[in-house]
Structure formats: C-alpha cells, structure tokens
Amino acid sequence: MAELPPRKNATPTKLTKLLISPLKVLLQMGFPKHRAEKALAATGYRNVQLASDWLLAHVNDPTLDDLQPREYLLYLCPSGLLQSQLQEFWARSAEECGRNGAHEFLPHVTLVPPFKVPDSAVPSIVSLLERIAEHENQPIPELRLETYISQNFMGFFLNQDSAEVIKVVASRFARELAQINIAAEAHTQALHLTLAYNFPSGQYSTLEYLVRNINPNTDASHWQLRLYSRDIRLSGKKVYKVIFPHVPRETDELELLLGDFVYVDPEACNNSIDGWIEGISWLTGCSGFLPKNYVEKTAESDAWTLHKSVELNLSADELDEIDGVSASSDQALRLLNQMSPELGCNNDTNSHRDQPTSTRVVAVRPTELSKCTENYANFNLDMAGLSPVVERPLAFKQGPRRLFIVRHGERIDFTFGTWIPYCFDETGKYVRKDLNMPLSVPKRQGSPESFYKDCPLTILGETQAGLLGQALRAVGGSNRIQHVYCSPSLRSLQTCQNILKGLEIEHSVPICLEPGLFEWLVWYQDSMPQFMTPSEMLDAGFRLRENHQYFIDFSELSDRRESAEQYYMRSHYVTQCALRCTEHIGGDVLLIGHASTLDACSRQLVGGLPRSAQELSRIVHRIPYCSLAAVQQCLPEESSLDDSPDETGSNKIKWKLIEPPVPPMTYSANLRFDWQTLLP
C-alpha cells in the first residue's frame, strides 16, 4: 500500500479545539466581536458560558453596541486576619452609626485610580499585572500601618518604607499601561486605607472606639494586588441591591430579580415624591422605574468585576500559624507525626498495657495541636471509639488497602453563573431553565438563598459521577470499597450518591458525613455555607450512616483565617481517622470532597509536606471535575527499605500514590443553543 503524503495543514485535534480562546468560541457562536469582547470584560473573562449568558441577559441593553470602555482600578487589599477585623468593623460601624462614605467600597488602598481600558485590551492589562508580580525581584518590606483619627477621617496610613516600594510597583504598572496607549496615573500621595469619612460629629466617639479595637499589624495578615472594573454608567450613581422581586405592570417599569443590583441617581432618589425611582439593572443593562422600597443601599464595589488578584511577595517570615503559634515545616511535620494514630502512644511502648481497656481518650483536633504538643504523645488514640464501624467478613482485609479520593462533579453555579434569580420564581419554586440543570433541588431551610454557597450538581455532574462509579465497578471496586466518607456540601453528597449507584452498592454501604472534608475555609471570607441538616439530607434520599461521630465537628469550621498548613493538617487528620477506624475490618476507603481534597488528603500520607497557599491555589486548577486520586498501602517488602522505627519505637504504615485503576474523563464544552438564531 502506498504511503500517505504528509498534510500541510493537519486537522486540529480535539485537544487543540479545547485550547481555543474564549473570544474565538464566542465568534464561532455568531456573536459580533465588539459584543463578545464587552461580555468577556464584564464577566472578568471567567468562561465562555458566563459571557454568553451575559449577552443573552443584555439583549435589550441599549448600550450593548456602544464602544464606551469600562473603568478599571488597581487596589491593594488586605486578606487574612486583618480582613476579618475590617469586615467586622464595617458591619458594626454600619449597624451602630449608620453608613458613611467608607461603606461605598471594600477595604482597600488605592494604587491606581480609575482609568479606561478598551474591551479588546483587557487580556493585555491582566497579563501585564501578572508579569509585574512575577518579575518583582525586590521583596516588599513588611507592611506596617499607623492609625490616624480626626473629626472627619479615620483610617490607616502605610509606613514610609513599605509605601515607597508599593508606589514603585504602582508606577511601573502605570508606565507599562502607557506603552499600550492606556492613560493611567499611579497614586503618589500618602497611601492609606479609609475606615470612615463623611460621618456626623455625634458618631465620632463610637467610631473612634471601634477603630482603636482593630489591630492593623497582625502577623496573620496578607496583602493582594487586585484589578477591578466597573460599568461606566456607575459614574455619579449609587448602587442598590434588590430585596424584593418586581414584575413590571407598565412598559416603563424595570423588572427586579433577587440578586440583581440597580444603579440609581442619588439626587433623584432623595427627591422622589411617589416612592418610585428610575434605575439601571446591573443584570440586564435595561433601565426603568422601580418601587424605592424594593431595594436597599449597598456598597458600590458589590457591582464591580474582579479581573485578577495577585499575592504580594513580603520579605517578612510568612510562617503559617496554628492557634497563634508559629510553626515551621519541620515543626508541622512533628505535629503531624504526633497526630498520627500509629504514633499516638507513650514513649514507653508498654505503658498503655497497664491502662484499663475501657479508658477512652478524646481525639485531639488539629486546632488543638499547638496547645498540647508535649502531652499529645502521652495519649492512646481510641479511633474505634470515635466512630464505631459495624463488623464485616474479614475477607475484605485481604490484599493491600487503597484510598480513593474524588472531586465532586460539575457544579451548577460555575456552569451557569448567576442561576438562582433565573431558576426560582417569586414563591421560591424551582423552575428548570436548561436541560443540564437538575430536574429538582432538595428542600432545605433558607432556600433559595442557601443554595448560593452550597449549590447542586448539573445533570452532567451527576452523569460524571455515575460513569466513575461504573468504571470502578468494572475493575472490582464494588467488592473492595467498604467505607465512604463525604464532605457536607450538597455537590459532594450528590457526587457520592451517584458513584455508589454506579458501583451498585448504594443500599449496602452508607455515607459517613464528615465536616472535616470540606474545602479550605479561606475561600469563604465573608460567610460559610448554610449546609443542609442531616434530617434534610435523609429526606433528600441520601443514605447516611447512623451514629457516625464526626472526626471534626461543624462547629470547628468557623475560623475562616485557616492557613494552608492548617487546612492540610485538618485534611490529614480526617484521612488518618478514616483509615484507623476501618483498619480492623479492611477494605478500601472512598473520600468525596473538593479539588483541593485530592492533594490535602494524600500529600502527608505519602510523606510530603503541606503546600504553600500559592502552590495549593495553582494545583486546584489542574484537578477537573470527578478527578480520582488513588493511594495504596505499601506491602511489607516495599516498606523494608525505610522501616526505621519512629520516636515511639513502632513502625509507621506507609502509603504511596498509584495510577488510578480507571482512566480519566475528558469532555468538551457544549455551547448554549439559542433557537432565535434560526429566525429569518
């Protein structure tokens, strides 16, 4: 047979198609270029689905074809403990003194005031900020803040050394913008973070008291460069959030949906004589009249778009803290070793034999480690007492044990963006608006708002989980997986349920609900999700294991200042508990959680150290929906090369990462079809 000649232009592979830019995808969908760029800029270049939804929502926006660019701002924003203190101050000052000028924005230091950027140039300025952050070789001195209080202004000023370096970064950003024909000026005055201004003199004493209760120079705080943008129509207007839905009765009225914001002229609002005001919808871009009592004032920055957030490289030692005690990596490793059930005994290996067998010692939580480092090794950790496991045939103990860790399937909010206002009517009834949306959602307290941070899976997400379960069943997983632990998030529970259905063991293996498997708390700075109660989970059809005692209770998921190291320790603790509780029975263990769970629950188990916050943030983007990690217990001959006893005199059980027994799952993005494109 003759050989085929090489093709000059090879057909693009499926992988190549997946790498097409969001703009090209929108153009292929038939959207005009200027509209596609406007949608991507307005949604922060999150994804194609969100941009296309924005275009559909703004189909009646009179400014959709205007070439007026958005305004951009570069802020320096605190995170960590200082951010938590400032959020509490914002809430208390508004409650006790009413709103003042500072409540219009999030806590920040202005580095580059508003500047206009054409929609087509947005990717360039985001890349520019990333490049400046990556090539900033000079570490920034530790940021120190000085409190300033006067009769008309209260806030913090940056100390001179760190302020000068920050100004250099801002000036460089402005100069780089000028090279791509974007006019911007770096803030050259004293850098400050405003806490209160434009407040009545009678509020001075209360505000002063609240300000002086803030510790601005806590070691557990970090700083980020953040690039925001806002609609040009916000200029001169105030932002109100919708608190009641409204269906227009006249053609000049504006439809109001929960979750939407409205831009309102403050003068027109104050001068309204009939309770009706004119506003512009953030969600649709349309304008019209609305009842004034259906909206309430909120921060202008609530209606902004975040394009990029970059962690600053501070020169001060940024050691993560455990209950206020700084811990280096070596210290953390020692604490983790002490936390391990295999090491949780007295240095005298025979001392525990003299203790009565009925004595039960409470397991030490990760948040308590720094308080009992010296004493923890003196306790014998009774894992079976934590969570009793029903005995099964010992045949399951044959062969090396495996630990499977799975990320949840496709979630509805990341697929459809702001879905709640579209899918719930005025009475709170769920209405399915897309075939990839779930057929129904479970009943729960606080619905539909409680779905905001605890959303369900899409139909595709349920299918992904079912396919993974079927694949595991095909390689014998139905007989080996005997213990299942799941994060309390709804998306994780639905993933777990569908995996068990695919394995055909949903009626024989119950789900152990485990709060400690929830993802990193630092991603929930404003508030934690309102999880479904166990009774609501049972009513929704989830088969939970009765009398399971949580390794980490819900009440312990309250410190949203949790460092990356603390998160790894929490996850490792849960993993060790799950393995130890089921060791006497055998069988494989299945953990269902989040993208970060795959690394956090396996890394220390196989001998690694906790990753930094930056490393963790990078790795989660490489773990797609329903990814599967597999860890296997080493055989005795595999452990013989490194079987030196630990400080307690016993040998640790060793584990290793292995190739998962089933292949990964790849799928392409399916674009949303608009039937109106077929109209003549």
Automatic annotation (TrEMBL):
Cited InterPro entries: Cyclic_Pdiesterase, His_Pase_superF_clade-1, His_PPase_superfam, Phosphatase_SH3-domain, SH3-like_dom_sf, SH3_domain, UBA, UBA-like_sf
GO molecular function: acid phosphatase activity; ecdysteroid-phosphate phosphatase activity; phosphoprotein phosphatase activity
Keywords from the UniProt entry: Cytoplasm, Hydrolase, Nucleus, Protein phosphatase, SH3 domain
PROSITE patterns given in the database record: SH3 (PS50002), UBA (PS50030)
Pfam (any one): UBA_7
First-listed, main subcellular location of the protein, grouped into a coarse class: cytoplasm
Keyword Nucleus: yes
Domain UBA: 14-58
Enzymatic reactions: 20-hydroxyecdysone 22-phosphate + H2O = 20-hydroxyecdysone + phosphate; 2-deoxyecdysone 22-phosphate + H2O = 2-deoxyecdysone + phosphate; ecdysone 22-phosphate + H2O = ecdysone + phosphate
Superkingdom of the source species: Eukaryota
Start and end residues of each SH3 domain: 235-300
GO cellular component entries: cytosol; nucleus
Cell compartments where the protein resides: Cytoplasm, Cytosol; Nucleus
UniProt protein name: Ecdysteroid-phosphate phosphatase
Species for this entry: Daphnia magna
Phylogenetic placement of the source organism: Eukaryota, Metazoa, Ecdysozoa, Arthropoda, Crustacea
Gene (UniProt): DapmaEPPase
